[in-house]
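A reminder from the course coordinator: this example appears on the midterm review sheet, so study it carefully.

Given structure:
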């Protein structure tokens, strides 16, 4: 039986298939009766769901993150599709195809990795070349770096997302380094490659993207600094000041304590890294949002995170947005 993907569901259809239960929350109707708000997903996207009947039974059967077999109908509520769930039961993880549930980058992972390695080989400093050679020779790291997502939601939240995000940032950082005089290109590009390496261990993504225990307990910034320190110990004579500056770029790349950085950026290169990260993550997130919504409308629905609607304009639709994203492979 053909898989019913989220992005193919239409109002009025009956749903009877396997999904990931991404989120579940108990809420109350006006009469005081409980109902369930759900988010259901697969590799194609996410859809809201609601359970009106047998709430306590279903709530006790499944938990957020479970693979579930869902039966229900699709309707439209306030212009957005949702599934009215009639029944939901746990489904064996061993019986699924993970490729049905975790989205992947549309770009060629091996080509992206080769381009990143080439950029790292262009460093002038031998100690930085040696550092990254140590990372590239670590098969466990490389395997994870090629496949990890860059986030659970919001931006680059798919297999290969971390690599795609990193390469895009490094390519942009390289252009910026040539534009502004006095920028340490080696430090800017090295810090950009390293800034999110902790995400290789922050997330688990076998059949859903979620935080690992290590990720929840430590955060990718702490993990990234630890990973860098482990490699630095293998490089004889690595300059101490450069090691501290690289760690600072990891520690400060979120820009402020408000957004999770223990320290704000305190070098020109760290400031640039923070803004390049902001640019790439936001543009990817907006493009993904536009491409997943109804492409027939000139305006997107309201985006809660950015607190605005986005204008598509005449002739600009989700397919074109996706094409623009894929075209970056040729840049």
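Designed residues:
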């Amino acid at each position: 039986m053909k898989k019913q993907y989220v992005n193919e569901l239409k109002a009025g259809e009956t749903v009877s298939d396997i999904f990931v239960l991404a989120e579940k929350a108990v809420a109350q109707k006006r009469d005081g009766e409980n109902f369930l708000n759900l988010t259901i997903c697969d590799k194609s996207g996410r859809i809201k769901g609601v359970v009106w009947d047998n709430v306590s039974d279903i709530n006790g059967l499944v938990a957020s993150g479970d693979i579930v077999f869902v039966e229900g109908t699709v309707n439209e509520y306030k212009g957005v599709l949702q599934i009215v769930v009639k029944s939901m039961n746990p489904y064996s993880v061993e019986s699924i195809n993970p490729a049905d549930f975790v989205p992947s980058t549309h770009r060629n992972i091996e080509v992206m990795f080769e381009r990143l390695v080439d950029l790292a080989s262009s460093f002038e400093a031998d100690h930085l070349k040696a550092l990254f050679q140590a990372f590239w020779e670590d098969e466990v790291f490389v395997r994870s770096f090629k496949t990890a997502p860059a986030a659970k939601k919001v931006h680059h939240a798919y297999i290969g997302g971390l690599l795609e995000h990193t390469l895009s940032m490094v390519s942009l950082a390289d252009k910026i380094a040539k534009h502004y005089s006095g920028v340490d290109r080696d430090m800017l590009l090295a810090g950009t490659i390293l800034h999110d390496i902790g995400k290789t261990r922050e997330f688990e993504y076998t059949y859903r993207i979620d935080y690992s225990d290590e990720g929840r307990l430590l955060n990718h910034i702490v993990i990234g600094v630890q990973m860098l320190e482990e490699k630095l110990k293998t490089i004889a004579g690595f300059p101490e000041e450069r090691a501290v500056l690289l760690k600072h770029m990891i520690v400060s790349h979120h820009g402020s304590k408000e957004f999770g950085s223990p320290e704000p950026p305190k070098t020109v290169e760290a400031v640039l890294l923070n803004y390049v990260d902001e640019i790439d993550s936001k543009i990817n997130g907006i493009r993904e949002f536009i491409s997943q919504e109804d492409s027939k409308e000139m305006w997107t629905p309201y985006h809660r995170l950015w607190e605005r609607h986005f204008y598509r304009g005449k002739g600009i639709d989700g397919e074109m947005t996706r094409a623009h994203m894929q075209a970056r492979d040729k840049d």
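DSSP finds eleven helices and seven strands in the chain. The CA atoms of residues 184 and 236 lie 22 Å apart.
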